[in-house]
Design goal:
- It is a single chain.
- The chain contains six helices and six strands, in the order βββαββαβαααα.
- The protein is an alpha+beta fold.
- It has one domain: Nucleoside Triphosphate Pyrophosphohydrolase (Alpha-Beta Complex).
- Strands 1, 2, 3, 4, 5 and 6 form a six-stranded mixed β-sheet that branches.
- Strand 4 and strand 5 form a beta hairpin.
- Helix 4 packs across helix 6.
């Protein structure tokens, strides 16, 4: 009999400043250990942030944007918006820019049938999360209040590149 699929949390810590949106974790998301049955992904993400020196006072917003199976794991993805009081790189030296040009370079995700699971790259997961934040700005008052200033400007700039992520129809084999 197969074992149960462990659940882990995945945090994409992002911050914005005048220059743009930054992935604070560098090149990839931070992942938790398997979530204990007496805990939850949200709390485990908070612990992971704390392990990286990020306290609640720096977190502007946490929102789960998706989940996916990845080999033997079920990954619950969170966008974690961090407050930047200065330029992001002055606070987090490993931060990497997230740009429209980079989204264009990666290109759209591979099309899939309507009833099939997508096979996104980690970059597509990040882009989906940012697009989701942009959607929430227009539909959720709490998010709109949390993501002011530079966020609205930078997310709006990403929207055209993201809106066509699955623009090509799936072709059955």
């Amino acid at each position: 009999m197969a074992e149960n699929m462990p659940v882990i949390g995945e945090a994409w810590p992002v911050a914005a400043d005048e220059a743009g949106i930054w992935l604070v974790s560098g090149d990839r998301a931070w992942r938790t250990m398997p979530v204990p049955s007496d805990s939850g992904p949200h709390f485990e993400i908070e612990l992971e942030l704390f392990a990286h020196g990020i306290g609640r006072d720096t977190v502007t917003m946490m929102h789960s944007t998706s989940w996916r199976a990845d080999g033997p794991l079920l990954i619950v993805t969170y966008m974690v918006v961090l407050r930047a009081d200065d330029y992001v790189r002055s606070m987090w030296r490993d931060a990497r820019p997230v740009t429209v040009a980079a989204a264009d370079t990666v290109g759209p995700a591979r099309p899939h049938a309507a009833a099939d699971a997508p096979e996104p790259s980690e970059w597509h997961v990040l882009m989906h999360g940012l697009r989701h934040l942009n959607f929430l700005i227009t539909t959720d008052a709490t998010t709109r209040r949390a993501l002011g200033g530079w966020w609205r400007r930078h997310l709006a700039a990403l929207e055209p590149a993201l809106a066509v992520m699955y623009n090509d129809p799936h072709q059955a084999a």
